[in-house]
Design a protein that fits this description.
Helices cover 64% and strands 4% of the residues. It is mainly alpha-helical. Strand 2 and strand 3 form a beta hairpin.
Length: 560
C-alpha cells in the first residue's frame, strides 16, 4: 500500500500561480485563512447573517458553496512553495475543507435530511448537567425555542423525497423532544431559570412542542419518502472523500480488504484471550457473561464518570501526558435526537465556561417509557467491560484531552478544523496505551477492549460496503450481531449513524494503525531520545491533522 506521505508530495511541493501584490505570500495566505474561518467573504466583507431558518435554507447552502468556491480560486494565487511547512499543511487543510463544501452541495442535504430541522438539541446541551446556566444562556434558549417552529416550517417547504430511514429517525426524535419539553424542560426551568424569564420560556416551549407534534405527524403521514437506500453516497463520492478530503491512499474496495484483514486478526486475538480466561468456552460465551455485569438503571452515567476519574488519576500518577490547566469534563444524558444513533454515548465537544474548557460527555442511560425488554437490552449493552473502555476513549486521554490541546493550538486553522481519522485513531491508540499502563484490571476490561476492537474492524467493512451497494442495511445489522455480538438495538444505532456520516466509521481502526506506524518510525528516527510521553504530546500539539500531513509534520521537522 502507498505510504500516506507519498500521495500528496506534489501538492505540498507548491502551487506556483503568482499573485502580484505588495502583500507577502505568507500574509496573503493568513488573511485568506482568517477570512474563511471567520465567516467573511473573499474580499474581507462580512456576509449578511440571517436567522437560523435562513441559514438552513437551500439558497444558503448554494451561497455557502459559492463562497467556498471563491476562496478556492483565491487560494490558487498563494505560491505554497514560499510557505513554511506548517503553513503548507494549513493550506492543504483549508483547501480540502473548501472543496468538500463545494462538492457536498450535490448531496442536497436541505431537501433530504429531516433531522436538520430539529434544532432543539442545542437547548439540551446548553442547560443540561449540574452546572447553572447564565442569564445569557437562558436568553439564547428562549430565542431557539421561538425560532424552532419557523425552522420546522422551513423544513416542510424544502424537504423532498428523503430516505425513509432518515424520516423514521426524525419522527422518533421529534417524539422524544415532545417528551423532553413536557417533562424535563419544565423541571429545569423551575429549578434554574431566572424568575423574570420563566413565563416566556414556558410559553415558547409550549409553542415549540405543538410545532414539533405537527412536524412529526407531517413526516409520518404526509411527506413522500424516497428510495430505501437513498442515503448511500455511491462509490465515486466515497472514494473522493477518502482520497481528496481525508488524504488517504484507499478506495472503498481496498478499505474493505484492509478491514477484513484486521477483523480476522482481532478474531484470533479474542479466541486466544478466551482460552486464557476459560479453556473450554468461546469468546462469544464469555461476552454473554460480561453483558450480565452492568450498572443498575439510572446509574450508568455515574459509572462512566467513575471510570473517567480513574483514568485521569492513572495519567497523573504515571505522568503519562501533560493535562493542561483550566479544563474539566462533565457528564450529561444523551440528547433525545441522538439516542437512536449513539447506543452508548459520545463526546460533545468543548464549551468555554468561566475561562474553563468544559467538555461534555453524553451517556445513553435508561429513560422513562422503555419496556422491560428494552431496559434489559440497554443494560446488557452498557456493560462494565465496555464502559471502562469507552470512558477513556471519550474522556481522558481520548477525545476530551485531544480537544483541549486543539483549542490551545496557536494556528487558527488547526484549532478550528480537524481530521476524524486522527481524532478517532488517537482515541483507539489511547485504548492500547492505557492497557499497557495497567488501566484494565480484570478479565471483563480486557475482553471488552478486544470485542470493541472487533466492533471497530467491522466498521471498516460495513461503512464502505453500505455506501457502495455491496451490503444492505439489514445485512450490516446482522453482521454486527453475528460477527461482533452486539445487541440488535445497538447494531441498528450503529448503522443508522453510518448512513448519515460516510467514511467516518472506518476512521477508528485506520487512524489507529497509522498512528502506530508513525510511532514506530519516530522511535527509529529518535533512537534513545524517543519516549512515549514525548511522542503523544508531539501528536496532540501538532493538531488534529490527516495522517499524511501529521506524518510530514513530525518526520520532516526537527524534534526536541
Amino acid at each position: 500500500m502507498l505510504s500516506l506521505s507519498a500521495a500528496f508530495v506534489v501538492q505540498l511541493g507548491g502551487c506556483s500561480l503568482p499573485f502580484l501584490t505588495s502583500e507577502s505570500v505568507e500574509d496573503r495566505f493568513h488573511r485568506l485563512a482568517d477570512s474563511y474561518l471567520s465567516g467573511r467573504d473573499v474580499d474581507g466583507s462580512s456576509p449578511r447573517t440571517g436567522p437560523v431558518e435562513e441559514r438552513l435554507s437551500i439558497a444558503e447552502d448554494s451561497s455557502g458553496a459559492r463562497r467556498a468556491g471563491g476562496f478556492l480560486e483565491a487560494m490558487q494565487s498563494v505560491d505554497t512553495s514560499s510557505l513554511t511547512l506548517d503553513d503548507k499543511i494549513d493550506w492543504m487543510l483549508l483547501n480540502a475543507d473548501m472543496r468538500r463544501t463545494v462538492r457536498d452541495l450535490r448531496l442536497r442535504t436541505a431537501e433530504r435530511s429531516p433531522g436538520r430541522y430539529l434544532i432543539l438539541g442545542s437547548i439540551d446541551w446548553a442547560i443540561g448537567g449540574d452546572r447553572r446556566p447564565t442569564d445569557d444562556t437562558w436568553r439564547s434558549v428562549l430565542t431557539a425555542l421561538r425560532r424552532a417552529p419557523i425552522v420546522m416550517k422551513t423544513g416542510r417547504q424544502q424537504l423532498h423525497a428523503p430516505p425513509p430511514l432518515w424520516v423514521r429517525l426524525a419522527v422518533n426524535a421529534a417524539e422524544r423532544y415532545c417528551g423532553y419539553l413536557d417533562t424535563t424542560f419544565p423541571a429545569i426551568v423551575a429549578e434554574k431559570a431566572p424568575v423574570q424569564l420563566r413565563d416566556s420560556l414556558t410559553i415558547a416551549a409550549s409553542a415549540s412542542r405543538d410545532a414539533l407534534e405537527r412536524f412529526r405527524v407531517y413526516l409520518r403521514d404526509t411527506l413522500v419518502a424516497g428510495h430505501d437506500d437513498a442515503w448511500a453516497v455511491g462509490e465515486e463520492h466515497y472514494n473522493w472523500l477518502l482520497e481528496e478530503y481525508h488524504h488517504l491512499p484507499y478506495t472503498a474496495e481496498s478499505m474493505i480488504e484492509e478491514g477484513r484483514r484486521v477483523h480476522r486478526e482481532t478474531q484470533q486475538a479474542l479466541m486466544d484471550l478466551a482460552r486464557r480466561i476459560d479453556p473450554v468456552r468461546s469468546w462469544q460465551e464469555l461476552v454473554e457473561d460480561m453483558k450480565r455485569v452492568h450498572p443498575q438503571p439510572g446509574a450508568i452515567i455515574a459509572a462512566y464518570e467513575e471510570e473517567s476519574g480513574r483514568a485521569k488519576d492513572l495519567i497523573g500518577r504515571r505522568s503519562m501526558i501533560t493535562i493542561p490547566p483550566a479544563e474539566t469534563l462533565i457528564f450529561v444524558p444523551t440528547a433525545p435526537a441522538l439516542r437512536e444513533t449513539y447506543a452508548w454515548g459520545g463526546y460533545g465537544g468543548i464549551v468555554q465556561q468561566n475561562s474553563v474548557m468544559t467538555g461534555r460527555f453524553f451517556v445513553t442511560d435508561i429513560v422513562p417509557g422503555m419496556s422491560t425488554s428494552e431496559i434489559e437490552e440497554k443494560l446488557r449493552t452498557q456493560n462494565t467491560g465496555w464502559i471502562t473502555v469507552i470512558a477513556l476513549h471519550e474522556g481522558y486521554p481520548g477525545h476530551h484531552l485531544q480537544s483541549v490541546y486543539s483549542r490551545l493550538h496557536p494556528h487558527p486553522v488547526r484549532s478550528r478544523l480537524g481530521s476524524t481519522y486522527f481524532g478517532e485513531g488517537w482515541a483507539l491508540f489511547c485504548e492500547s496505551w492505557m492497557g499497557r499502563e495497567g488501566f484494565f484490571t480484570d478479565r471483563w476490561d480486557s475482553l471488552g477492549w478486544l470485542q470493541m476492537r472487533l466492533w471497530r474492524t467491522a466498521r471498516v467493512i460495513i461503512d464502505p460496503s453500505i455506501h457502495t451497494g455491496r451490503m444492505t442495511y439489514d445485512q450490516a445489522v446482522e453482521f454486527f450481531i453475528d460477527e461482533v455480538g452486539l445487541e440488535r438495538s445497538a447494531a441498528e444505532a450503529e448503522v443508522n449513524r453510518y448512513t448519515t456520516w460516510p467514511t467516518q466509521a472506518p476512521s477508528y481502526i485506520i487512524g489507529w494503525l497509522e498512528i502506530e506506524r508513525l510511532k514506530a518510525d519516530m522511535a527509529r528516527l529518535l533512537g534513545d531520545r524517543f519516549t512515549e510521553k514525548q511522542f503523544v504530546e508531539s501528536l496532540l500539539r501538532t493538531g488534529s491533522l490527516p495522517l499524511a500531513l501529521m506524518r510530514r509534520s513530525l518526520l520532516e521537522q526537527p524534534q526536541p
